[in-house]
Amino acid sequence: MATTWMDAVVVARTAATANIAVLDLAPANGTDFPAYTAGAHIDVLLEHGGLIRQYSLCGPPGTGHYRLAVLNDPDSRGGSRAMHTLELGDRLRISAPRNRFPLAAARRHLLFAGGIGITPLLAMVSSLDAEGGDYTLHYSVRSRSDAAFVSELAENPRVAFHFDDEDPGQRLDVDSCLATPSPDTAVYVCGPGGFMDHVLARAEAAGWPPAALHKERFAASAPDPDGAETGAFTVRVASTGAEYQVPEDRSALDVLQENGIDAPSSCQQGICGECVVRVLAGEPDHRDDVLSPDEQADGLFAPCTSRARSRVLELDI
Ligand code: FES
């Protein structure tokens, strides 16, 4: 099903840091935005539809507005630069919220934010505060001047700031934070790839089960250098029985869409979850950053990046 786009208008714009703009969006046509839960993101259509980018909703759920915080990243592929040109009153098109990073049903929550990865976790802090949840947020940033939302979080006793350029004693010690795996605690990680890989690797080394670890990436992780070669395979559409060859240099999603199959998509990088379908037969080779090990084991599959170990993969489309 294709994404349904909504018209939004920028109703507030502030600078959280020299490089981070906070944008409040409201409906442009009088209708209400759909509600969302903490951890959700939206797609934003930029450059006259030529770019689609995902941004986490960082404001407290339930305000009727959507709040985004956008880093003007020098390595941007164009999205953050375009977002930083938006001014008060500008209109843009956005998707309804999707949540691949929700709060888990846990008694305690351990949140790790690296830099701009604070955005979905800020919404989680709002929700947990509203419901009296038990949590600790570790917010790690290169320097205080790069940290968004410091004033909002400064008085919160559940928040620990870690600045790389300040006293070594306050730097993030992941091993001590994660020293004791606990069955009723959920761990959440969001930030740059290196930060996320480090926290997740230390959690795994400490014995945290994969099901306790929740992550959201802003960019696809680097391919595994020891991973198997990407080969060609065939996708079969279960509803029609039609088969399509997926060459080694194309994604299954591209091939399906080229052949007129109504396959939803957004990020094309295996990070948003929009394209996820169920595998009915065959052996997938999972190469996404969005599905949990349980979801993968349960037959879910991201055709934008993942491939097949078997010759044929039958998809529930
Ligand atoms: S399109 Fe985003 S995960 Fe596939």
Mean pLDDT: 92
Please tally the helical runs, counting DSSP H or I stretches of 4 or more residues.
7
Which fold name corresponds to the CATH topology of the largest domain? Rossmann fold
Number of individual domains:
3
- How much of the sequence lies in strands comes to 25-35%
C-alpha end-to-end distance: 11 Å
Protein name: PDR/VanB family oxidoreductase
Organism: Streptomyces violaceus
InterPro entries: 2Fe-2S_ferredoxin-like_sf, 2Fe-2S_ferredoxin-type, Beta-grasp_dom_sf, FAD-bd_FR_type, FNR_nucleotide-bd, MRET, Riboflavin_synthase-like_b-brl
Pfam families: Fer2
In short:
With 317 residues, the protein is α/β, with parallel strands linked by helices. The chain has 3 domains: 5-95, Translation factors (Elongation Factor Tu (Ef-tu), domain 3, Beta Barrel), CATH 2.40.30.10; 108-217, Rossmann fold (3-Layer(aba) Sandwich); 233-315, Beta-grasp domain (Ubiquitin-like (UB roll)), CATH 3.10.20.30.
Could you please describe the fold and organization of this structure?
- The structure is a single chain.
- The chain has helices at residues 79-84, 118-131, 150-153, 174-177, 193-206, 252-258, 293-297, and strands at 5-15, 20-27, 41-46, 51-56, 66-71, 91-95, 108-114, 134-141, 159-163, 185-191, 213-217, 233-237, 243-246, 277-281, 284-285, 300-301, 307-308, 312-315.
- The chain has 317 residues and is α/β, with parallel strands linked by helices.
- The protein has 3 domains: 5-95, Beta Barrel (Elongation Factor Tu (Ef-tu), domain 3), CATH 2.40.30; 108-217, Rossmann fold (3-Layer(aba) Sandwich), CATH 3.40.50; 233-315, Beta-grasp domain (Ubiquitin-like (UB roll)), CATH 3.10.20.30.
- Strands 4-3-6-1-2-5 form a 6-stranded antiparallel beta sheet. Strands 9-8-7-10-11 form a 5-stranded parallel beta sheet, with helices on both faces. It has a 5-stranded mixed beta sheet with strand order 13-12-18-14-16.
- Helix 2 links the parallel strand 7 and strand 8 (134-141).
- It is globular.
- The model has no long low-confidence stretch (mean pLDDT 92).
- It binds FE2/S2 (inorganic) cluster (FES).
- FE2/S2 (inorganic) cluster binds at residues 265-268, 270-275, 288, 290, 302, 304.
- This is PDR/VanB family oxidoreductase.
